[in-house]
Amino acid sequence: MKLTTMTQVTIDGVMQGNGGASAEDRRNGFERGGWALGRGDDDTHAYMNATYERADAFLFGRRTYELFQSSWGSLTEQDVPGWVPVMRALNARPKYVASATLADPAWSGTTVLSGDLAHAVRELKAKSGGELQVHGSGTLIRWLLANDLVDEMTLLVVPVILGQGARLFPQAGPDLVLDLVESRVDSKGVTIQVFRPAGRPHYA
Fold first, then answer.
1. Which residues, 6+ apart, have CB-to-CB distance to 191 below 8 Å?
2. How far apart are CA 11 and CA 163, in angstroms?
3. Tens-place pLDDT, residues 144-178
4. Above 90 in pLDDT, residue 17?
């Protein structure tokens, strides 16, 4: 399977609290949650639905897994008009959680990866299929990138600057060249950019 990530970020790279409805939005004094609500147009919503639909499995960090379980795991189709494909995929497809402390996951179809994570992810990627998708899970994405395990990365960039909050990329970290393979902008100014990692940069 190809390991892909999809992340909503602001212009200044913040990914925290895009929906604004959970306790996660308030960690470390964050007060500007909900910045992505209502920002994408119908084409962007359709793109996100189609992305989830083509997933063969999902990989989460523990925090995002618990947020998704408490929301998508308990909703019905009537609760999420316009997002039924997302809900169906998350509930029906296998889910893997990178965690050393989660012992008894309640969400059906969940497997905890608690040992050698790099080995476990490589084994998942070696399976036949289309995509092993990572949504949210910023800490996990940074680790996957640092370990050269990401095949494709999609950023949905919302035209807002927050000035606070957890960012997708750390202030200091490994460097990486990205090849742009797809780019589009919707009628509300949200850009969708799909990248493939292409090794380390060369400097003058």
1. 155, 156, 157, 183, 184, 185
2. 10
3. 999 999 999 999 999 999 988 889 998 888 899 99
4. no
Which domains, and CATH codes, for the chain? 2-197 (3.40.430.10)
Average pLDDT, integer, range 40-63: 96
The number of CA neighbours under 13 Å toward the Cβ of 177 is 7
Residues in the chain: 204
**Proportion of the chain in helix, strand, coil states, percent, rounded to 5:** 30, 25, 45
pTM above 0.90, yes or no: yes
pLDDT, position 140: 96
- What is the C-alpha to C-alpha distance for residues 155 and 148, in angstroms, rounded to an integer? 18
Query: What is the overall mean pLDDT for the chain?
Result: 92
Burial of 139 (0-12, 13-18, 19+ CB in 10 A): middle
Cβ burial of 32 (10 Å; 0-12, 13-18, 19+) is middle
Distances (CA, A) of 134 to 29, 76, 150, 186, 189: 26, 22, 10, 23, 24
Per-residue pLDDT of 6-16, as tens digits, reads 999 999 999 98
Largest CA distance in the chain: 56
For 65-164, where are the E strands, in sequence order? 95-98, 110-113, 131-135, 152-158
Cα 144 to Cα 48, 103, 128, 138, 185, distances in angstroms: 22, 22, 20, 10, 27
pLDDT value of residue 191: 98
